[in-house]
Hints:
Blueprint: E1 10-17, H1 39-42, H2 47-71, E2 76-80, H3 82-91, H4 93-103, E3 108-110, H5 127-144, E4 150-153, H6 160-168, E5 173-176, E6 188-191, E7 194-198, H7 201-208, H8 223-231, E8 237-243, E9 247-248, E10 251-252, H9 257-270, E11 274-275, H10 278-281, E12 288-289, H11 309-321, H12 328-333, H13 337-341, H14 359-380, H15 387-393, E13 402-405, E14 410-415, H16 418-427, H17 430-439, H18 441-450, H19 453-459, H20 465-483
Parallel strand pairs: 1-2, 1-8, 1-11, 2-3, 4-5, 5-7, 6-12, 9-10
Antiparallel strand pairs: 6-7, 13-14
Helix pairs in contact: 2-4, 2-9, 3-4, 8-9, 11-14, 15-20, 16-20, 18-19
Amino acid sequence: MTGKDSNPLVFSLGFDVHYPGQLNSRFRPEMAKGKRNLRDIYFNPDIKEGLGQAIDRSYRPATEILLDLLDEGFKCAFCISGVVLEHLEEWYPDMLELLSRAATHENAEVLAQTYYHSVAGMFTDTQEFVDELLMHRDLMNEQFAAAPTTFVHTDYPITPATAEALIESGIQAAIIEGAATERDPNHTYTCHGLPVLVTHCDLADDIAVRFPQREWDRWPLMADRYAEWISASPGECVTLFLDYRIFGDIFGQETGILEFLRALPSALADAGVEVVHPSDAARIPPHDDIGETAEQVSPDSPQSSQRTILQNTAIEALEAAGDLVRDRDIWRRLLDTEHIRRMAMRPAACGRPLHIAIHQETYDYFTSFMRILSHLEERSASSARSQRSTLSLRCVPPGYAFSFSSCDRPAGYAAHSLQELADMLEFAPDDIVCYHVERGDFYRWISEVIGDAKLAKDIQGIEDRTRLRLTVQERIDTLWKRLR
Length: 484
């Protein structure tokens, strides 16, 4: 509880304005024959219609409400992806104008993020992360005359490398997801010198997940009760970052979600809660330095270092593809965090819509994703310095992956590229490796699927797992040198 002798608690609220990209699940390589514009083939052609519905249900009414609240002195923040701004400018300029009025309001703050709402912060190399951060900052300056200093970092854990990259790029604070640290979300922290706010997942999910659930023992949630919960929170601050579509699109207007939004500022004022911008909350003296613990997240979260095998495969394949593909824009659209979330069985909510994943749907989405990424790499081979190297290094869709198994059952993991094969050879049990060596499975897969006759010949007859792995890795390194 907030005591009489403690500093008054402050509250900051940010909105994630992004319309996630969706893949064309019906894509097959033969559909691309003779086509030059692959973007329209790879991605769901109904995105314009879907965004239009989100605007009518959510973006427009929520923005109109917030404009009134901002005029009355309420403070909030907007984090607007470069991708959604592109779509609004092309298809819905009237909505862009309305959103611009809110983002440029004197009581609003514009937050920084990656241009493509991407998973680039999960990569080993931070260059793409920095490039997209600077792209987004340039767009915010061009569109809103804003220079964001607070970065929303909720889709992956903050690391020493990303913290350093943010500081070097002029970022003065970051908002990270509450699931990305075991620390109390009601305090400010630092991470390698960067001030950090932690979102309050429980309070966020009261709105983003539980609000319309009639079986919830706190239903219906009214703004005054919610403001009391915030006021009673211990610590110095409460930070929320919510998906904008929650207000009218994910939860229809019949649930009362827009009325809740309209009533919240006055309820907070009545409860004695001061509302500030995230950048102001980040100036509160830090409680502690989260350091490496910022990377300790739930195993079920796409932010976790313990992500699912499907998620790890997709992220590693994406990073490798960055040096293989010709069309950077399409590759970057495949970095959208939504693609990785849809590969999780129990994705974390924390201010985002919670979808119940079915195993088959998760696997089907992963299959579509890898099929598209593999095709994009193959199409890029013809213009590469070494076409053969590109084809050998590409990923393959699940139907062509090397599935590890023993004589009686599947091992439960598969290699979708030479690099993933080399990595798995490091931890696969000896009996499984021996089983495949004796059958000549590695030779056939490398020869027939990957199409690298030299490597297939080089590994033929190798029985020692360490030597086998080193031979594959040396070939990978040689292929990359030819491309660079």
